[in-house]
Design a protein that fits this description.
The complex is a heterodimer of chains A (366) and B (345).
Chain A: E1 7-11, E2 23-29, E3 32-39, H1 47-52, H2 60-64, H3 72-86, H4 92-120, H5 124-145, E4 154-155, E5 158-159, H6 167-190, H7 193-199, H8 207-213, H9 218-222, H10 229-232, H11 253-277, E6 295-304, E7 309-317, E8 322-328, H12 330-335, H13 338-342, H14 347-357, H15 361-364
Antiparallel strand pairs in A: 1-2, 2-3, 4-5, 6-7, 7-8
Helix pairs in contact in A: 4-5, 4-11, 4-14, 5-6, 6-11, 11-14
Chain B: H1 4-18, H2 23-60, H3 76-86, H4 97-113, H5 132-140, H6 143-154, H7 157-188, H8 193-199, H9 205-208, H10 210-223, H11 235-238, H12 248-273, H13 284-303, H14 311-342
Helix pairs in contact in B: 1-2, 4-6, 4-12, 6-7, 7-10, 7-14, 10-14, 12-13
The chains are: A alpha+beta (366), B mainly alpha (345).
Chain lengths: 366, 345
């Protein structure tokens, strides 16, 4: 049989649709992908090492930079890990505020996902629609913390301050408009014939393979495994809320898109419940001024971030600085599945697969 | 108002003759003047078009679009052009220099050549060619070679991929494009664009040939490399496809040529299907401009709505859907013409 030479092309690190400094070396046969090799490390800032030279409190802003698209979730995971380490009671109201802001972050992250999938497939307008709606969440973050993108609102033992008055009408009107926004996404983006043709049956990740690789989050749920840490291993006060875990059937790009759109809806339900049940009271528990956990104590705490299981492993050596901080970054683990699911596809499919795996490089290169 | 441009042309010829020039020379000078005007209008029009495209995109995406320079940001494109003109002309060291340099020039030349046969008003075609439509399609397909030259000359894998895609796409879409026009040709019995416009005196061909219009429109979008068929450029996949290595004015020439093609194909669509320059009240040249802009707005609407189609879907759309449909359309048109004759209409 007549064969052509294989050649490699470098998708990234400077490329319009790699979501930051991701470098995929694709081995191509014409337009068909024979292999894809993921190279990471272009935005490595040694966050874990920095943590060792900062006090427990000082690391919070660094944590928010891990997943800058869902800023409250990585900080939430970190402060909860420290709380577990030193055993602090968190006031009820603070827990509810954490849930509200965390779910808003999840919605924001998923909106960026939907929009960036649209623009990666060439539909520029889809991105703008999603960013327009995300802007309202950013405004709410600004109301609460004065910061839009990297809020650092969580504190060990609670949150820094109570939510302002104007936050509540804003979040209520946002939740009222949420079904309309989802209708718009379904009409313009996921309902589009061309987008469906490019997503259905592309980048199929079977549930066995997903579990073997340790894929978590919406990517795992799109493969048909109803595993969500908010229900499987509830942290904070998540066992109080009713919500469904949307799952996909085929594990292709389309499922990864629809699962996330449904998750936006479910997060909306959680926020509604939290707003209804929220008590009044303190927002910060009693935390010692200098945090010095016992020597040799270690703790692993995991939360369901927008991208999957985000875990923090903290080891204390008895000083005010942690001995070791390890971040189990979901994007890093999820990206590892990219070669196996993009093999045999077209060049254009790799773009869709990268977009639907939803990596955030700040987290992968930590 | 109707005969403004014709009167100017007549006046110019008679003035030149009165200066003592032989009529042949006067005609030649007139031709040069006509071409200069066409190139000037094309360039100016592209400036407006780019502004319009950005405004349309802004409108669709709930933004403002350009709004700083001049009223409604109308001078934004001029500022951008000046920026492009003053940019450094970078030619990467590993390129095939000759091919790399001439590709954008050929592209714009080919694009301008299309205007020779377009009737931009009553009796206002530069050359009243009796195989005008054939000329248009054959010259239009030359642009593929220019993109291939750009992709090959750049010596870049992205560029080459873009160029190869462009070739595959153009070869597939030339066929439904030509076939969809055959219906119109069969009804009028002429390849002369002015005759085709005359034949639409009573009824526009979009009503007689709706299927052909849709096929033509899809194929033309692919021909023009516009979204959702912008394979050769495909920013999100191929960075900028065949144009990746081009900077400054060379890149701007590609941009200019793409818009020039857009105007030409839109003008062809309005000539063949929307009655060309015919229309009540307004002068003929204004009618064709209005119709052309209408078609271009539809092109822009499509581009800013749809995602990019995948390459193999694009090919199967052409070979499995558009070509059979256009063939059936030809057969049905033939049968219809025979039926009309037989009934004595």
């Amino acid at each position: 049989m007549f064969t052509t030479d294989l050649y490699t092309i470098n998708i990234g690190p400077q490329h319009p649709s790699t979501h930051g400094g991701l470098h995929v070396e694709a081995v191509m046969d014409g337009e068909v992908v024979k292999d894809a090799i993921v190279h990471l490390g272009y935005v490595h800032r040694s966050v874990e090492k920095i943590a060792e030279s900062r006090t427990y409190t000082q690391f919070i802003p660094y944590a928010s930079r891990l997943d800058y698209l869902a800023t409250h979730l990585p900080t939430l995971g970190y402060v909860q890990a420290v709380e577990k380490l030193i055993g602090v009671e968190v006031p009820e109201r603070a827990e509810y505020i954490r849930v509200i802001l965390g779910e808003l972050s999840r919605i924001a992250s998923h909106m960026v996902f939907v929009g960036s999938l649209a623009i990666d497939l060439g539909a520029t307008t889809g991105l703008i629609y999603c960013l327009r709606d995300r802007e309202r969440i950013m405004d709410m973050f600004e109301m609460s913390s004065g910061q839009r993108l990297l809020a650092s609102y969580m504190r060990i033992g609670g949150v820094i301050t109570d939510l302002p008055e104007e936050f509540f009408p804003a979040v209520h009107s946002f939740l009222d408009d949420l079904p309309k926004m989802i209708d718009e996404y379904n009409g313009l983006i996921s309902g589009n014939e061309i987008l469906q043709a490019r997503c259905k049956g592309i980048g199929i990740l079977t549930s066995e393979e997903a579990m073997a690789y340790g894929v978590t989050g919406p990517n795992l749920r799109a493969s048909g495994v109803a595993y969500d840490l908010r229900q499987a291993d509830p942290y904070g006060i998540y066992e109080r809320f009713n919500f469904e875990i949307p799952i996909g059937q085929r594990g292709d790009c389309m499922d990864r898109l629809t699962v996330r759109i449904k998750e936006i809806e479910q997060s909306g339900h959680i926020i509604r419940q939290a707003l209804k049940e929220m008590p009044v009271g303190e927002v910060r528990g009693k935390v010692p001024k200098v945090i010095k956990p016992e020597k040799g104590k270690e703790v692993y705490h995991r939360i369901e971030s927008a991208k999957g299981e985000l875990g923090y492993y903290l080891v204390s050596d008895g000083t005010e600085k942690p001995y070791r901080v390890h971040v189990r970054a979901p994007s890093f683990v999820n990206l590892m599945v990219l070669p196996s699911i993009s093999r045999g596809g077209k060049l254009q499919d790799i773009i869709a697969v990268i977009a639907t795996l939803d990596p955030v490089l700040g987290e992968s290169d930590r | 108002m109707e005969n403004w441009f014709l009167n100017i042309a007549h006046w110019l010829t008679s003035w030149l003759v009165s200066l003592g020039l032989a009529p042949v020379w006067a005609d030649l000078i007139l031709l040069v003047v006509q071409w200069t005007i066409i190139v000037g209008i094309i360039t100016l029009n592209v400036l407006i078009l780019i502004w319009l495209e950005r405004k349309v995109a802004g409108f669709m995406q709930e933004r403002l679009g350009p709004n700083r320079l001049g009223p409604f940001g109308i001078f934004q494109t001029i500022a951008d052009t000046l920026k492009l003109l003053t940019k450094e002309d970078i030619i990467p060291s590993q390129t095939d220099r000759l091919i790399f340099k001439v590709a954008p020039m050929f592209f714009i030349i080919v694009a301008v050549m299309l205007y020779a046969v377009l009737p931009m008003g009553q009796d206002m075609a530069v050359v009243n060619l009796n195989v005008g439509l054939f000329y248009f399609i054959s010259v239009g397909s030359l642009s593929t070679i220019c993109i291939l030259m750009a992709g090959w000359g750049s010596n870049n894998k992205w560029s080459l991929l873009g160029a190869m895609r462009s070739v595959a796409q153009m070869i597939s879409y030339e066929i439904p494009l030509a076939f969809s026009l055959l219906g119109v040709v069969m009804i009028t019995g002429s390849l002369n664009l002015s005759d085709i416009v005359q034949a639409q005196h009573n009824i526009w061909f979009i009503l007689l040939q709706p299927v052909a219009f849709v096929t033509f429109f899809i194929a033309a979008t692919a021909e023009l490399n516009r979204g959702p068929f912008d394979m050769p450029e495909a920013e999100q996949e191929l960075t900028a496809g065949a144009y990746t290595e081009y900077t400054g004015m060379r890149w701007a020439l590609f941009f200019l040529a793409e818009y020039t093609n857009l105007v030409a194909v839109s003008a062809l669509a309005s000539t063949l299907f929307l009655g060309g320059w015919q229309g009540p009240f307004l002068p003929s040249w204004l009618w064709i401009i209005l119709k052309t802009y209408l078609i271009m707005l539809v092109f822009m609407w499509l581009k800013w709505t749809f995602p990019r189609i995948r390459m193999d879907h694009l090919m199967s759309l052409s070979w499995k859907v558009l070509i059979p449909i256009s063939l059936v359309n030809i057969v049905l048109t033939g049968a219809g013409i025979e039926l009309f004759r037989w009934m004595g209409w």
